[in-house]
């Protein structure tokens, strides 16, 4: 049935050279071949469970507890093909749940039910838009100042109908609304659309995104006769499970829990940034962000062990819900121990990150001299 | 927590006017609000279970039994972002399973491991390709004659490098290879790529597709620094659950079970077509197809009850795995009973479908006179 060519399932090493899995014709008379499948699955699940506490470099919230309750849905193949707001000719969809989720986001972003159109996608980030604003950039977690840009456009004489602003709120769209003093994401401002990821801050076992735009922009709906539905989505078949997962997650968390998660994550991110700076490690954290950027560790094994994301001389940790002070302390302790080895004989020196972090956040010897 | 504004969850009626679900702020002190969520889910699951036996009009195989075994995977957010064949910088992916599935299809379609590139998508059908061939068209299940087209291209002096053929095998890609006398889908013929749906004939609770092309066509891989991976996929984040579901399904079914499923489905489709024609109902069935097309029922309630798909004067049933003779007999009996009412006073007559079905398959009085 299965041919494991290595001793264990090692998720990270998935190159063509290191393949450890294949599909082999089953022998229905031989029970052991089916047991082998289960063994591989069990081993894979154990590896994932063990590795969960080291997953701190990417913005995925895996600390949800609803998977067992929703598991029976896997009996059905739910497909939300076509427009969420039109009647479906089949039973096996979850468009009621989808519209409930869309309505919740429409209310959060202050647009009337009759004024918006949207759908749940299989991803969050929108590429290739004419003018896009990032509410939490991928690497440094920076939040663009939307108000300033709108003011500038107005000052330069651009009326609303001469520009289109898309807000990519993939990660921070469920943090900023719950933080006092953070600028509001709202359709009361002259923006065209907002997208957000469902599998990031909120937490969902499948990639998904919520996309909402002003209804007035969705003029050319195309009728798909086969499914008897208009369709302005770009994806055709759409996963019917994700809307139910999002609906359940929002219904159990509510504003109160999301606000609590946001507050704790921002506090924990500040805690990590402060510990790094106090220990003489270059680090930065943008306002209202949960992405702590710091000096890139020298050892690739360390980077892999903590699932760190890196770019040039920088690495980052995204302090998501479920990443506790204990996890942060454990990471910090490990980093300090290893870092002492990397720089112990002073043959190598930590890099200067003044250009990336600002000199006040750079702890290299040059920057410290100038500060 | 939840505001049901109708007595029951009615999946089909998901128009803006009939919404029955919303997300309401939870009261964490009130246990009943959480019980309400569970009640809605239970009711929804019961409705789906009950409706399963009437799902005969769309090509979705829901007769799989592996959902309970794979449910623990929902604890993790698996994302196969980027190229399946390059190393992933994070633990939470299933690229080993993905490549195992791709290799299985590469072997089925006779292309060497080193000669192909592919990935698992969130859908099956490819739109807007330069020249596409359908192995199972959406409505009538027709299978294009690839050999004839290639011969014609050659006869007209077109060399292989002057055309690109994509084979859309969404539904029939796992039927034709197991049917003797059916023409082969193979990369030994001068085709460029093949796509197939995972949630159709094979059966998977989430929409997904397998896309395989010749490696030589994938020349411009774009490096995505954030995920440290090349990426020629068009979707960015990709569901990491579907490759494991497909891997498990293929590993337990194997060629033997797929061949058996194909044979039974084709036989059952012929059985339904014959019963319809014998009862004087216009019907047709393309060669090696499982899509039985017949005269469109007059009553919309009947169409909705059996989840039938319709187009102009036609409707169809797709005889998928799990649709038994008992289900077919039950549908046929119901159709005959209702049809007698529709045409009892001879005020209306069944439509002529000679143009769509050929006069030999049309049972209208005009066609019968000419036959």
TrEMBL record, chains A, B:
- Positions where N6-(pyridoxal phosphate)lysine occurs in the chain: 200
Identify the cofactor(s). Answer: pyridoxal 5'-phosphate
Gene3D superfamilies per record: Aspartate Aminotransferase, domain 1 (3.90.1150.10), Type I PLP-dependent aspartate aminotransferase-like (Major domain) (3.40.640.10)
Q: Which UniProt keywords apply?
A: Decarboxylase, Lyase, Pyridoxal phosphate
Highest taxon above the source species: Eukaryota
GO BP annotations of the record are:
carboxylic acid metabolic process
One function term, GO molecular function aspect: pyridoxal phosphate binding
Name the family. Belongs to the group II decarboxylase family.
Q: What is this protein called?
A: Histidine decarboxylase
Q: What is the originating organism of this protein?
A: Solanum verrucosum
């Amino acid at each position: 049935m299965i041919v494991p060519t290595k001793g264990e399932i090692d998720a990270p090493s998935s190159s063509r050279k290191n393949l450890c899995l294949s599909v082999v014709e089953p022998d229905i008379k031989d029970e052991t071949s089916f047991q082998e499948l289960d063994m591989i699955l069990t081993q894979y699940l154990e590896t994932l469970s063990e590795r969960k506490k080291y997953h701190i470099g990417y913005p995925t919230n895996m600390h949800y507890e609803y998977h067992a309750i929703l598991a029976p849905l896997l009996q059905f193949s739910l497909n939300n093909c076509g427009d969420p707001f039109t009647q479906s000719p089949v039973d096996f969809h979850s468009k009621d749940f989808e519209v409930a989720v869309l309505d919740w986001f429409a209310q959060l972003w202050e647009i009337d039910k009759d004024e918006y159109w949207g759908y749940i996608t299989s991803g969050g980030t929108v590429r290739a838009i004419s003018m896009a604003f990032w509410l939490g950039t991928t690497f440094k977690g920076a939040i663009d100042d939307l108000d300033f840009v709108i003011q500038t456009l107005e000052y330069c004489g651009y009326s609303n109908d001469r520009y289109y602003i898309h807000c990519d709120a993939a990660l921070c769209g469920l943090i900023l609304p719950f933080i006092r003093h953070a600028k509001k994401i709202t359709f009361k401002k002259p923006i065209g659309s907002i997208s957000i990821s469902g599998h990031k801050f909120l937490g969902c076992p499948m990639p998904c995104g919520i996309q909402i735009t002003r209804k007035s922009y969705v003029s050319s709906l195309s009728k798909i006769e086969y499914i008897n539905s208009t369709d302005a989505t770009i994806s055709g078949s759409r996963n019917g499970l994700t809307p139910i997962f999002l609906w359940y997650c929002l219904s159990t968390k509510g504003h109160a829990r999301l606000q609590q998660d946001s507050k704790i994550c921002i506090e924990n991110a500040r805690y990590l940034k402060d510990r790094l700076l106090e220990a003489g490690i270059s680090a930065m954290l943008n306002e209202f962000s949960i992405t702590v950027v710091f000096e890139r560790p020298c050892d690739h094994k360390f980077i892999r062990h903590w699932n760190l994301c890196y770019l040039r001389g920088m690495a980052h940790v995204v302090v998501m819900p479920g990443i506790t002070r204990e996890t942060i302390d454990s990471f910090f302790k490990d980093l300090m121990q290893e870092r002492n080895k990397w720089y112990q004989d002073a043959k190598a020196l930590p890099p200067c990150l003044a250009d990336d972090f600002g000199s006040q956040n750079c702890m290299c010897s040059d920057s410290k001299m100038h500060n």
